[in-house]
Amino acid sequence: MVIPPTAPMLLTRNLLYTGITRAKKLLIIVGMEKVVEFMIQNVDSKKRNTGLEYKMRTGI
After folding, report:
1. What tens digit of pLDDT does each residue of 12-56 get?
2. Which domain does 27 fall in, by range?
3. Which positions ≥6 away from 32 have C-beta within 8 Å?
4. How many domains does the chain divide into?
């Protein structure tokens, strides 16, 4: 799993958890330790406005 230094809103604990739990046999995290630590501490989650609900309701 590559974890580049990027915008803090993208570096969430949820994203790290997803990467870890999807690994089948082996997980290698490539990135700076301070960025991974930030992800562990960052419990903020933003609401995603994908428009999926609208598309499902209208059949688009």
Report:
1. 999 999 999 999 999 999 999 999 999 999 988 766 677 888 888
2. 2-58
3. 3, 5
4. 1
